[in-house]
Amino acid sequence: MHTNTAITLVKRPTGGPITADNFAITALPIISPKDGEVLIKQQHLSLDPAMFGWMSADTQSYIPPVALGDVMRSSGIGEVIESNNPDFAVGDRVMGMMGWQHYYLGNGQGLNKVTAPLPNEAVLSVFALPGLTATQGLFKVGKPKAGETLIVTGAAGSVGSIVGQLAKAEGLQVIGVVGSDEKANWIVNELGFDGAINYNSANLDEQLEKLAPNGIDVFFENTGGAIQPLIFARLNAHARVVVCGLIADYAKQIPTLGPSWLNVIKKRITIQGFTMPDHFAEIPVLLEKLTPYVMAGQIKHRSHVLEGLASAIDGLNLFFSGANKGKLMVKL
Amino acid sequence: MHTNTAITLVKRPTGGPITADNFAITALPIISPKDGEVLIKQQHLSLDPAMFGWMSADTQSYIPPVALGDVMRSSGIGEVIESNNPDFAVGDRVMGMMGWQHYYLGNGQGLNKVTAPLPNEAVLSVFALPGLTATQGLFKVGKPKAGETLIVTGAAGSVGSIVGQLAKAEGLQVIGVVGSDEKANWIVNELGFDGAINYNSANLDEQLEKLAPNGIDVFFENTGGAIQPLIFARLNAHARVVVCGLIADYAKQIPTLGPSWLNVIKKRITIQGFTMPDHFAEIPVLLEKLTPYVMAGQIKHRSHVLEGLASAIDGLNLFFSGANKGKLMVKL
């Protein structure tokens, strides 16, 4: 029998890039499912910026950290290869939090069957955590209205690209902030954004002025960084700020301060953070909301696929450099 | 005939204390009401921290600035002395935005009759802008639940003292932040707060730890200042921050930055600013909400009454020093 190659977290990152010594690659036995259990051979696993939070020692966060010695947490997609659970049959295609390993054994809780006739890459790119996050954050927190202006940071990323396309489909003016001209080109010419700003370029404030002459109504924040206060200063009355991610701060010892709250009063702004674990019960509703846009061809995506389990480790650093192009995942 | 002594804004404050040269005291004619108009002799006018915003040149704020040369904006209470408006009779007692002057002429819009058998000081302290602000901010934005912990800054102020008492009546644990031991004593021993912190004392974080060992669920912010990030760091999951005022920043050229948004994500915090002009249409509902607490004796107040129109000018500086004791107003 094969062994289950897995990657465990052995040392928490303390700022700076992720290195090989944060993890250990180990061979675990493959255990056959007991009564009620199901064994899955994972095919693709998702890499997400949220993982930096899961690796930290912060027990006050929205989800407990991964314990040292435990298999690193991740979502993925795979196939049921043995089942003692009446809800799952051999051959079923399922998504769930299966971790950095080839085989996942569980009682079926948290596993969702995938019936959409889409390749794994598309499922992880659109219907997994990023698509659900985009749908929840945009509609429930951002409350977009046709004719408004939305700006989304990390706009070529897995969440941001879907946020922007959903907002376009809803009739908003949509501006994306990205880290390269190639990404700027992609979101405007392929995804249909109205404008893009490369945060590595000059005169950011002038670019904002030009692209959002009437101010900004929804600010979907995935990154943080130097453009944050510039965007914040251009928010309109009753603007909504959806705080979804702050990748620019995850590796910092001392996080960047946020904008003064003076504008929060003057403009009656709402700043709201959210994370998906609070909304796992609403996933069916979110999928129902998201699916018609996908079916109508309004949600394009691209996947950045790394090869082999071990590539996950250094792959995380792509989030810091912004070198990933599209939804980052690992093919096992 | 008497003249209408009025104070007009002639120079916008640019940081630092308010001085006599920001204003001009002028004698205006008293004009008899035309058809539909009503003339009021103002008896008490209210001084509020919001005035610093109204005096600024910021045309992007929630309400247009007072134009240079115009009578300074304020709310007040007085008596109808002439009426050509069928809705108002001579002798009616009314509240409204009458400005820094002895006589107010208007078409009745924005004037509310006062029928409660309470002295002017009590009406301005509880049922005017501060009480409405407290009611709107606490219930609609703060969404308090019995058993939760609330902290309010400016807790001996006109808004904060009512916020805290309403929250106590709703069954919350209530901590107030004030600027003197005398005020700390007043909110605990007279108003029934569970605890008080003098922000001028030492070891603020230890005091917070002691008074809110289970963290903070509602943060009602009236002041800003050095205690803001300490409170923010102690917010619980799903905490609500009601941003009502930032008196510590109003006179600063460069406002203090806010807390990092990392905790906004981790704790799924909502930070929401509000101002009363958005909710003027809801005043009847707010009064209906507030009145039973007042009738049940759950809302105590104290007024700090200055004498004479000209005292309004230097009176504003009491907000910066925190030397006002209770609702600040001017008796005309």
Number of helices of chain A: 12
How many distinct beta strands of chain A? 15
For this structure, the CATH topology of the largest domain in chain A is Rossmann fold
| CATH superfamily grouping of the largest domain in chain A | NAD(P)-binding Rossmann-like Domain
Question: Quaternary arrangement of the chains shown?
Answer: homodimer
Short characterization:
The structure is a homodimer of 332-residue chains. Chain A has 332 residues and is of the alpha/beta class.
Topology:
The structure is a homodimer of 332-residue chains.
Chain A: E1 4-9, E2 23-28, E3 38-46, H1 50-55, E4 76-83, E5 93-96, E6 103-106, E7 112-113, H2 120-127, H3 129-142, E8 149-153, H4 158-169, E9 173-178, H5 181-190, E10 195-198, H6 204-211, E11 216-221, H7 227-232, E12 235-243, H8 247-250, H9 262-266, E13 270-273, H10 283-295, E14 303-307, H11 311-315, H12 317-321, E15 327-331
Parallel strand pairs in A: 8-9, 8-11, 9-10, 11-12, 12-13, 14-15
Antiparallel strand pairs in A: 1-2, 3-4, 3-6, 3-15, 4-5, 5-7
Helix pairs in contact in A: 2-3, 3-4, 3-10
3D structure, described in words:
With 332 residues, chain A is α/β, with parallel strands linked by helices. Chain A has 2 domains: 4-115 and 302-331, Medium-chain alcohol dehydrogenases, catalytic domain (Quinone Oxidoreductase, Chain A, domain 1, Alpha-Beta Complex); 129-277, Rossmann fold. In chain A, 29% of the residues lie in helices and 25% in strands. Chain A is built from 12 helices and 15 strands. In chain A, strands 3, 4, 5, 6, 7, 14 and 15 form a 7-stranded mixed beta sheet that branches. In chain A, helix 3 crosses helix 4 and helix 3 (129-142) crosses helix 10. Chain A starts with a strand and ends with a strand. The A-B interface holds A 53, 58, 60-62, 221, 224, 237, 243-246, 249, 255-275, 278 and B 53, 58, 60-62, 221, 224, 237, 243-246, 249, 255-275, 278. Strand 13 (270-273) of chain A pairs antiparallel with strand 13 of chain B, so a sheet runs across the interface.
